[in-house]
TrEMBL record:
Alphabetical list of PANTHER family matching this protein: CHROMATE REDUCTASE, NAD(P)H-DEPENDENT FMN REDUCTASE LOT6
Leading EC class: oxidoreductase
Single GO cellular component term: cytosol
Example GO molecular function: oxidoreductase activity
UniProt KW Oxidoreductase keyword: yes
Boundaries of every NADPH-dependent FMN reductase-like domain copy: 3-150
The protein, known as: Flavin reductase
EC number of this enzyme: 1.7.-.-
Keywords: Oxidoreductase
Source superkingdom: Bacteria
Protein's organism: Lactobacillus iners DSM 13335
Length: 186
């Protein structure tokens, strides 16, 4: 079974993107072993600091995963600062050349937000970072999951995604991600 890490792209206590990661882990648990990974304990990136234990564990999880899903909210038309800092710990600049953990790692970007655009600009920002020479990830193309109006698309008690149209889009994207990972691993 493929091992995935689903990164909650915020350090906020309440997050629809956390609910999205948890829903993905539950719904696709028959196809993937998905660990939801928080970034709350990661320190702010500094090139002068050696990664602490939380950073080392984060990097190890990503390195050992067959693929990564990043669920990002949108803050001021971009990814949150906490997510940017977390990703800076994964690039080749963090520990020098050869220590990058996202290089050629199959990665999928998803997101939800309160507004109509479903974190579209943050997702584009995240893809640009992932495709940079510092990260070099393999980003799943042509499978955007843009969940707008988050408060109406998740159940208030279970926090499960309830919009059937979006669930169908997510089903297709996850099937495509499965094939994408398997193609790369051949």
């Amino acid at each position: 079974m493929l091992k995935l890490i689903a990164i909650v792209g915020t350090n906020a206590e309440f997050s629809f993107n956390r609910f999205l990661c948890q829903y993905i882990a539950k719904r696709y648990g028959d196809k993937f072993n998905i660990e939801v990974c928080e970034i709350n304990d990661l320190p702010l990136f500094s090139k002068d600091d050696y990664p602490n234990e939380a950073v080392q564990n984060f990097r190890k999880k990503l390195r050992l995963a067959d693929g990564v899903i990043i669920a990002t909210p949108e803050y001021d038309h971009a990814i949150p600062a906490a997510l940017k800092s977390a990703m800076e710990w994964t690039g080749k600049h963090s520990l020098g050349s050869g220590n990058d953990v996202m290089r050629l790692k199959p990665t999928m970007v998803v997101g939800t937000s309160y507004g109509v655009q479903g974190a579209s600009r943050a997702q584009e920002d995240m893809r640009e970072i992932l495709l940079s020479s510092d990260e070099g990830a393999l980003v799943l193309p042509a499978n955007e999951i843009l969940i707008g109006y988050a408060a109406t698309n998740f159940d208030k008690q279970s926090h499960d995604l309830i919009n059937k149209t979006i669930i169908k889009q997510l089903d297709v994207a996850m099937d495509n991600f499965y094939q994408f990972i398997n193609q790369w691993n051949k």
